[in-house]
Amino acid sequence: ILLLTLFYLHFSSVRRVGMSQLETAPAAKRSLRVAMYDLLLLVIFMVGGLMTLAVLFPQPFDAVADPFQTPPDARPPWYLLAPLALMELLSFLPKFLRGVIPEAILAVVVFLPFLDRESGSGATRKLFRTIGIALLVGWAALTFLGWYLEVRR
Question: What is the pTM of this model?
Fold first, then answer.
């Protein structure tokens, strides 16, 4: 929160006061080659720093993974709570269909912008906007339901 506050103060003061102009220094043009060398040096230093940290502070491994035995405290991450809730709600369907339905919803969400080809604010535009908002609200409700199901477990 402190970092966001400092960013806000910095950008608001730059917006209010403006950028300072250097009168003595001529405007230098940087070539692409120089910019790429700078980027390469930055990447080398970052990778070197991360490798140094990995050598100095190694992370120990847990037990060997067993794909046939799930640990008792395994929980899905937050972005998989909605598909979990959807699969729990559709428990009367075969497992194959329970896995295909979230993928079909994802495909609809991905390809929905390609169906809306006209510009402006016609009736079709409002229909697609309504469908998009309904999908977002439904996904948020499923995420909350998945969280509730996991808390109850």
Answer: 0.50
